[in-house]
Amino acid sequence: MKILFAHMWMVIGGAETHVVELSRELAAEGHDVTVASNGGVYVDALVSAGVKHFTVPLHTKNPAAMIKSYRLLKKLIKREKFDIVHAHSRIPAFICGALSKRMGFRFVTSTHAVFKVGPLLERLSDWGDHTFAVSCDIKQYLIDNYGTPSDNITLTINGIDTKRFSSAADPSRVIEELKLNKDAFRVVYVSRIDNETALPGFLLCDAAKELCSHIPNIEILIVGGGTAFNRLSVAAKTANAAIGREAVKLMGPRTDIDEICASADVFVGVSRAALEAMSMEKPVILAGQQGYIGVLDEKAMPKAKLTNFTCRGEKMPDAKLIANDILTVYNMTAEKRRELGALCRREVLSSYSVTRMADDHIKIYNRLTPYVKYNRGDIIISGYYGFENIGDDSLLTSIIDGIRIYSPGAKITVLAKHPRRLSRITGVRTINRFNIPLVALEMRRAKLLISGGGSLLQDGTSKKSLYYYVTVMRMAKHFGLRLMLYANGLGPLVSENGQRAAASIIEKADYVSFREESSLKLARTLGMKCDIKVTADPAFLVEPSHVLWKHHITAREGIGSKYFIVSIKDGNNFDGADTNKDTVSVMADDIAAIAKKYSLTPIFVPMFPERDTAITRELAKKCGIGKVVTGLTASELCAVMSDAQFVIGTRLHTLIFAASLGIPMLGISYDPKIDAFLDYIGEGSRTLDIRTMEKGQLADAADILIKNAPEARARLLCIADELKKKAECDRMAASGLANGN
After folding, report:
1. Residue 544 carries which DSSP code?
2. d(Cα 481, Cα 469) in Å, to the nearest integer?
3. Is residue 159 classed as helix, strand or coil in its secondary structure?
4. Angstrom distances, CA of residue 124 to CA of 71, 117, 422
5. What is the tens place of the pLDDT at every residue in 249-287?
6. How many Cα atoms within 13 Å fall on the side-chain side of residue 377?
7. Among 78, 57, 54, 79, which residue's Cα sits nearest to residue 67?
8. Running DSSP on this structure, what letter comes out for residue 160?
9. How far apart are CA 564 and CA 320, in angstroms?
10. Alpha-carbon distances, residue 261 vs 41, 240, 281 (angstroms)
11. Is residue 487 within 8 Å of residue 420, measured between CB atoms?
12. Phi then psi dihedrals of residue 432, to 5 deg
């Protein structure tokens, strides 16, 4: 793969080191990597690793420099034809984004820090087709300030070269060069010494005299350069004058950080520098411009990981805090310090290696199909999409992901209610589902119509929707497209006209799969003789969000460690009977009783926010306990659900997500599809009918469910594995049909 990294410059800094390590690892794995920047001390390291470097003035907002950068990058990208262009800071991202819109290449970004938000900076920000964030709080910043879809942001790490940064590093050359005291207790602080980042350096100067009174042989090495270096030099001289010797030494910018850290007894700092010290098995005190956690031990590690070791959002450091923690480490036994260092090294090896960082990036690069400008799709997908329904949108994501895996060059068009929003989330062409002339125009050049997934062929809730989907399928056959009914649910079909319409179009399809046995039985009852496969709902293939993002969500929403998930549906049942009022009153007392009896918190999740939020809040209010959580994507919901004790659901995809994760469930049936699904997975006894449910039944069912939870989990995990394989078969079939097989 040919990859271009665009960054401001290659001077000493955390983001720059990130680019260097990622570039070198990708080059070592056989990828063709080029870096464009204004140059700096790390250029030689790149070139020696086989990474090409082109000098482009991407380090400044000066209009003349930006115009020059635009022209140079345009020429470079046109000549080299990169598969991926990846910008690592705001100015390069703005320029590459503008070029991407004109030249049509795949463009991604990385965000290493948060920035001030203003009208001008918002206009200068372009986060590309996909964004990498190095911490959960940066991902949240992108969501909150720029409306970047959560699933378009991948959490990655600051990968560390664990061979270079190890306990085997030799400090002797540095000790001799800098004329350090071999017997000193040495504190090392590494950071960009800018006004925005250098606070701990000043605090170390403030604490130096007090520390010397307790540790007579202390040496404090401050490594780095930047806009605040001269001010910090004055602070260091003042501290040394008060002490009477050079206890605080400013090293300036250095590239031999491994050798300097090897001389340390304790490291002070944050982010990548802290991870490098951790990899070298040094005790670490986390202190930065944006927060303070202190001595990094087993208790502090989870909190540190949430912000990628930046301490962002924690209490602010001061000189006394830092001094006390340095004294704590000084007073530890040698064995205790070794234990802290070993803990840090294990964490880096398990989660922060350069290999894992490179794997994170290649996985996303491969997911992004080669950019092809097109006005018509090869594949058209029709379903209940663009309505912001978590369940249905998960089907679309799964289908698109499957097409990208097996036919990466396929051009896809989705018929949607809100085309622009959905296009931003999925990265494919979308058109208005009700613009029939435009749909017809789209079909003139397409090869395949995928109808599904979901219960599209039913007239229990609406005859109009049935005839809409049948009409779209008939149009596809009229224009000579192949037709795939993708993991559909069939029925209920209550009218004879509806039965005839459904049967007629199914018989004309080139491939038909249903998501449960009951749909097949109904098809045969209606006289359909075509080949029909029973597979599984595409939602079985939804992957939960990253575990760190899950922890971020639970912390953000105030979700404790012991909870269960509840979803309730607003609207009529399939037979038109509105039972919402009774449902809320019947369920509320039972949910409260379950929560109290088992010391659990109910987490109420509206699956279709536009319709379900009001009734969900009403239920939560009547329960008097629990929390309503809105705005989750399918991946985020699955992540949160993975730690739930069990699930109570009236929306089908709540139950499907639970089954895919092996989470015990109770279904509140309002539609035959609920019963059909639970029967299909062998959980038919876990169903309560919304029309006949009485107080006490839900609580009694929960008692039985909780009692048999271990067996249920094991059984569901086995079933889920089988159904995921079946769902994968539909993905392969879609690719085959698109390719004419």
Report:
1. P
2. 15
3. coil
4. 18, 10, 23
5. 999 999 899 999 999 999 999 999 999 999 999 999 999
6. 26
7. 57
8. B
9. 44
10. 19, 22, 10
11. no
12. -65, 125
Task: Read off the tokens for 158.
Answer: 């600051």
CA atoms within 13 A on the CB side of 344: 32
Instruction: Please state the rounded mean pLDDT for residues 475-493.
Output: 95
Kindly calculate the radius of gyration of the chain based on its CA atoms and give it in whole angstroms: 30
Q: Cα dist. 585→435, 519, 689 in Å?
A: 42, 33, 15
- Identify the CA nearest to 483 among candidates 495, 475, 493: 475
Residue 271's Cβ-count burial label (10 Å; 0-12, 13-18, 19+) is: buried
105: alpha, beta or left? (left if phi > 0; alpha if psi -120 to 50): beta
For residue 81, with 0-12 CB atoms within 10 Å meaning exposed, 13-18 middle and 19 or more buried, which class applies? exposed
- Amino acid at site 548: L
* Angstrom distance (rounded) from CA 337 to CA 280: 12
Give the integer Cα–Cα distance in Å for 605 and 654: 9
Task: Look up residue 670 and give its DSSP letter.
Answer: S
Look at residue 617 in the predicted model and tell me its pLDDT. Answer: 94
Q: Kind of pairing, strands 291-295 and 284-288?
A: antiparallel
**427 — pLDDT class (breaks 50, 70, 90):** confident
Bridge partners of 449, per DSSP, are 380, 483
What does the DSSP assignment read for 637-665? Answer: HHHHHTT-S-EEESSHHHHHHHHHHT--E
pLDDT at 400: 93
Tell me: the pLDDT tens digits for 324-356? 999 999 999 999 999 999 999 999 999 998 999
If pLDDT is split at 50, 70 and 90, which confidence band does 576 have? very low
Per-residue H/E/C for 589-641: HHHHHHHHHHCCEEEECCCCHHHHHHHHHHHHHHHCCCEECCCCCHHHHHHHH
Specify which residues 512 forms β-bridges with. 485
Q: Is 678 helix (H, G, I), strand (E, B) or coil?
A: helix
CA–CA dist 249, 231 (Å, integer): 14
What is the C-alpha to C-alpha distance for residues 301 and 712, in angstroms, rounded to an integer?
34
DSSP assignment of 233-289 equals HHHHHHHHHHHTS--EEEEES-S-HHHHHHT-SEEEE-HHHHHHHHHTT--EEEEET
Q: The tokens of 740 are what?
A: 């004419």
Do 630 and 640 contact (CB within 8 A), yes or no?
Answer: no
Interacting residues of 408 by C-beta distance below 8 A, sequence separation 6+: 366, 369, 370
Q: Round to whole Å and give the CA distance between 49 and 28.
A: 8
Taking residue 295's Cβ as centre, other Cβ atoms within 10 Å add up to 18
Which two structure tokens, joined as six digits, stand for 347? 């964490």
Q: How many CA atoms lie within 13 A of 235 on its CB side?
A: 20
DSSP for 680-719 reads HTT-GGGEEETTT--TTHHHHHHHHHHHTHHHHHHHHHHH
- Total-model pTM: 0.85
How far, in Å, are 116, 194, 298, 304, 553 from residue 294 at the CA level? Answer: 27, 22, 12, 10, 24
Please, what is the end-to-end C-alpha distance for the chain in angstroms? Answer: 28
Strands, sheet with 647-649, edge to edge from the N-terminal-most edge strand: 627-628, 601-604, 563-567, 647-649, 665-669, 687-689
367 touches 428 (CB < 8 A): no
- The full DSSP string for 62-128 is -HHHHHHHHHHHHHHHHHH--SEEEE-SHHHHHHHHHHHHHH---EEEEE-S-----HHHHHT----
Q: Percent helix, strand and coil across the chain, each rounded to 5?
A: 50, 15, 35
Question: pLDDT tens digit string along 386-426?
Answer: 998 999 999 999 999 999 888 888 899 999 998 988 888 88
